[in-house]
Fold Protein kinase domain-containing protein.
Amino acid sequence: MSGCSQGKCSDSNIPFSFGMFVLAPVLVSTWIVWTRQKKKLDYHRLNLFDRNGGNLLKKKLSKRKKSANAQLKIYTAEEMNRATNNYSDTTVMQRCNPGTFYRGSFSDGPENREVVVMKIPTVEKSRVEQFVDEMIFLSQPHRNLVKIMGCCLETCSPLLIYELHGDGNATVFDCLRDHGSDSLFFCKNRVKAAAGAARGLAYLQSNPRPAIFHGNICSGNILLDADFDAKVFYGVASGLFEGNAVYRDPQFINSGRVDEKSDVYSFGVVLVELLIGGVALASDRWGDDGNLASWFVSLIEENGLSQVVDDEIMLSEEDGRVVRELAAMAARCLSGKTGAKKSVAAAKANSNYQFLKTPKMAEGRDCVTVRVEYLVNQLPSSTPSKPIIDKVDHQLRQVNEKDFEPQIVSVGPIHRGKDHVKSMEQHKVRYLLQLLRRRDRLSIEKFVSELRNLEEKARRCYSASINLDEDEFVEMLLLDGCFVIELIRKYWFEDLRDKNDQIFQFDQTLIRIRHDLMLLENQLPFFVLNHLFNMTKMEDPEDNIYHLLLFFVEDMFPWLDVSKLDSKSDILHNANHLLGLVYQSCFSLSSKYFIENSGGKQSNLLRISSASELKEAGIRLKGITLWDVAFVDGVVKLPPLNISDKTESMFRNLIAYELYFPNDHPKYVTDYAFFMHCLIRSTKDVEILRGRGIISNFLGSDDMICPMFSRLGKNVVISSDFSYTNVFESVNKYNRLQHRRWMGKVKRKYFNSSWAVISFIGAAILLLLTFIQTVFCVLSYTK
């Protein structure tokens, strides 16, 4: 009996033993994998920490006094994740060069500390020691510098932690731009702001190993508190000038090197801004060449300071003396003459000057009253209409001016007469002659008579000053207009071409002309083209100006489908010029889609991950034939884009055209360029998009595409009424679901090929059969 009982006990333990036998290897394997992954992650972070100078920083801090060590704390990656809520979009304060700014919070003291976290580009190996020295130097408190409180060097992009100033702080740029009743516009406060900035710069350059050069001095990087004490914001020396072009000194433009003179020059620009009471971005004020330095220095040499200095700071004779001294300092800074560095030091000495506030009177009347009355009398009786053809904004031109310059042919007055386009003038005359030969009833006199009636209306379409008299302007309209009309007719009706016509003999010439006709500055008013076309209209039903123009440029725009357009549509008839016609034609069919997907006003600008990051999250990308960008069932659908050497210029001119739209008008191209900029951040992203049929690269190298979209985003503001709000929100919501990220990672790592899937299925079937066999064996044994 006892033996039988023991046998039953042994039989009952068989399932438990078998379960432990199966479970134990699984648990051990899981623990081993987790341990290896953790060690791998720790090893990766240690490598990053060393590469970013972490060990060197620890070594240098250990040699300093204990009080100095307390000024700069080294944080771990986990601490930074908690402080920024894993770098969520809600913590993003600003994205710009040279990094991204997040709002963070630390609870490592008696109370929470609010900080600014700046993610900077990877530090070059040759600059690691300089980077470490700068962090230590800038961690010391100074009344005129924003202090570095800590850093994190365990991430690919180093993180710098700055003290967060209260919401009441503003920048010099903000105060000058708003130009309200703020007392900043009193002379003493302007000098106080300049003096504080000068002290901050002088402190930077006092660093002995080596001297630190800011490289990005501008009115937007100088913070002012309620008492107008200035604090200069400084990241780390990047070796590159990241500021606006107007603040760049000539030496940097020629050599690309930032040094002491660069900061002195930029400080001189800030002084000019304080003197004139406005920001230095409006290039139309700086003379014909748009150079602020030469304009201001010449003004000082000609004793013309009173013409531009803000009247609000000239409240007394003593004020005038100090203003003249500051103007002389600014001129020395901008000219690079001897004594420019001393000008910065001299600016510091003026901070304690006491100013009088006696109002200046003119002939018994307040000077402000006289000035405002004069300005009122100078206003036109009605608000002038907005021009439809304008020079591209200076901020866009400075990225690459050639994108807006015609290569071979000028159309309109802006580029007329330039040397590199003069060779096409004979072709224009020849095309006019050929047009007249086909239309016997027309004459040059008839053309001129009709165009004289349109001259005044056409001239009002241009905002740039036109140095053409009435006769020259009408001649330009005739030659340029007839050239465009004859060109598009010859392109469609091949029998009209002359066998010796060089434009159609060489494809490259035709491509360059097509490119030139799509430049914003190289346009004729559409009503002029339409009038000339109707005067010379052929009996052929295919002779339709909308059809011919759009067919001529169809190959340049992947979103343009002429076959789906109605030539009688009001959208086409309301076009301002050829570029506007193409723009309206591209997006008229998609306007309903954009309205449905904009999602309304957004208080915070959304972003999405790059193509490679989306792939890691299990999100696929797919090319589609229509424009309707969408996110459906984990798939981002995008229209195809052919990228050639003309693509960047095409985007830039369309973006520049959108700048003249009202705020409530969709910015289709600007938003699309931003979308692609988010997706393309590396060559790997380009490879993914190319493999999915979304982009076709005709540039020759994938390395050229990423910088192109990065340049397209410079000096461009994304409107709050973003066209892809719903798509971005859907992608980000999908991306935040951890189980989908895990599934995407598993698919990518273990099921990246059909053979891997087949092998897994085979192994699963084999395991199932083994399990069934084991169960039957156990059951048969118990019986």
Observations:
- The longest strand covers residues 99-106.
- The chain has five domains: 2-50, 54-163, 170-356, 394-538, 591-750.
